[in-house]
Write a structure and sequence with these properties.
- The complex is a heterodimer of chains A (271) and B (164).
- By secondary structure, chain A is an all-alpha fold.
- Helix content of chain A is 65%, strand content 0%.
- Chain A has eleven helices and no strands.
- Chain A starts with 11 loop residues before the first helix and ends in a 6-residue tail after the last helix.
- Chain B has 164 residues and is α/β, with parallel strands linked by helices.
- The radius of gyration of chain B is 18 Å and the shape is elongated.
- In chain B, helix 1 (7-14) packs across helix 2.
- The chains are: A mainly alpha (271), B alpha/beta (164).
């Protein structure tokens, strides 16, 4: 059965599980878009600066749609949900909050482009699986948002897949750094694929398909790329904990402090 | 005397509301208008966003209200962005496609190859001898291309379809 709007939800448990899923989707997009935005002006070349900022703008737009759905469920206002929540309340995967590299974007950023490419490629592919699944979600407003996000995501995935393949095939230092980045991202990428403690209920309420199925589709999609570039496909781990349960690193605290600095000067201002 | 503006009048006014980033094309020609509803003198206009992260959306919202107030004295107006049906690039009308060209933007291609690639002709000289420089452009909905015939850089509106 399809639920067409927030006001049609009668089952409290359904609402709780849906809310949890929306926080995961929103917080993942929000933080990876923020990390991406820190690359502005620092990307390897001018065309990439244009492309990457466009992708981050799209992704931030997707986060805003998911926060909007949360607002409709009575969770608070979009701006507050994005800026005003502590790290322990956030549901994003730990690998997405990790800093881009040593240094700061304002002074001596030694960001790692290989890490950016691998993290974004893996993430875009995982998001593709989720959006495809959400198109059939029992919550129609979420299915509509997934259709919309999916069309823009098409270009993101194409972009990151191209970078990934070209850098790995370039050999030399590029390949070495990419191999290192793959290893690093894989150590925590299971945190993106997981649906957290309410995952089974998300499936039984037909909100999304199981994480086992989503993982299988992710592997099926990246395997040909790994084979074509002669890379072994690593096992995915969650070595630093599960962000879906509110476990996070200092990197997230710092990110929230930075991104909410303006918002916190006057939380009631209208932008 | 009935002073209420008719549906046709409202659409006429919406024709004057342009995309703030492509000011030759109206939001109607871009295919962003979903519906106009009237209830007890209040008008609800539903629009479809092209790209959801587009910063022009809020400006468009304000411009719609402003235009209806100024041109037909309609003050009780609500503008809402909805996601269904999703905006797709085939919603751009024939006039919209022509006006995009006038602005130096090639209209979105109507078909894509099986591998997802696509081709547009130069909006300036019409040459088919063009190359894609960057799928991503200065706004979320545009790509950057180059015409090898008239040697002009130009932009194209990205194809967006639910088949993607």
């Amino acid at each position: 059965m399809k639920i067409l709007s927030a006001s049609e939800i009668k089952d409290e448990q359904y609402k709780k599980v849906l809310t949890e899923l929306l926080y995961q989707l929103a917080d993942d997009d929000f933080i990876i878009a923020f990390r991406g935005s820190e690359w502005l002006g620092l990307a390897p070349h001018i065309e990439e600066d244009v492309a990457f900022s466009s992708i981050n703008q799209d992704t931030m737009g997707h986060a805003a749609m998911f926060y909007q759905l949360l607002e409709e469920l009575g969770e608070g206002e979009v701006d507050q949900l994005a800026h005003g929540r502590k790290s322990s309340e956030r549901r994003n995967a730990i690998i997405l909050e990790e800093v881009n590299g040593p240094g700061d974007y304002l002074s001596e950023p030694e960001y790692d482009w290989a890490f950016a490419v691998v993290r974004n490629y893996f993430y875009a592919q995982a998001k593709k699986g989720r959006m495809d699944s959400l198109k059939q979600s029992s919550y129609q407003p979420l299915a509509d948002v997934a259709v919309k996000a999916n069309m823009e995501l098409y270009y993101h995935l194409l972009h990151w897949k191209t970078w990934f393949t070209q850098l790995v095939n370039a050999g030399g230092e590029a390949r070495m750094r990419m191999e290192k980045a793959v290893e690093k991202v894989a150590k925590d990428f299971a945190g993106v694929v997981t649906l957290g403690e309410l995952g089974a209920e998300m499936v039984s309420h037909q909100l999304i398909e199981s994480e086992e199925l989503l993982l299988k589709r992710w592997k099926n999609a990246v395997e040909p790329i790994f084979q074509a570039t002669n890379l072994p496909l690593p096992d995915l781990e969650m070595s630093r904990g599960d962000g879906r349960t509110g476990v996070h690193t200092k990197d997230l605290d710092k990110a929230i402090e930075t991104l909410s600095e303006v918002y916190n000067t006057d939380p009631l201002a209208s932008w | 005397m009935d002073m209420k503006p008719k549906l046709e009048n409202i659409i006429e006014v919406l024709q004057t509301v342009k995309d703030p980033e492509i000011d030759s094309v109206s939001i109607v020609e871009l295919g962003m208008l979903k519906s106009i509803e009237e209830n007890d003198g209040k008008v609800l206009i539903r629009l479809l966003p092209t790209f959801v992260g587009c910063p022009a959306l809020d400006i468009i919202k304000g411009n719609v209200r402003k235009a209806l107030k100024e041109q037909v004295n309609l003050t009780e107006v609500e503008v809402e962005f909805v996601m269904s049906p999703p905006w797709t690039s085939d919603r751009v009308s024939a006039e919209g496609r022509e006006k995009l060209k006038q602005f130096g933007i090639a209209p979105p291609p109507q078909k894509m190859e099986e591998d997802g690639s696509w081709h547009v002709d130069c909006p300036y000289c019409g040459s088919t001898y063009t190359t894609l420089d960057n799928i991503f452009g200065p706004t979320a909905c545009r790509s950057i291309l180059y015409c090898k015939n008239c040697k002009n850089p130009f932009e194209a509106m990205k194809p967006i379809s639910t088949l993607m």
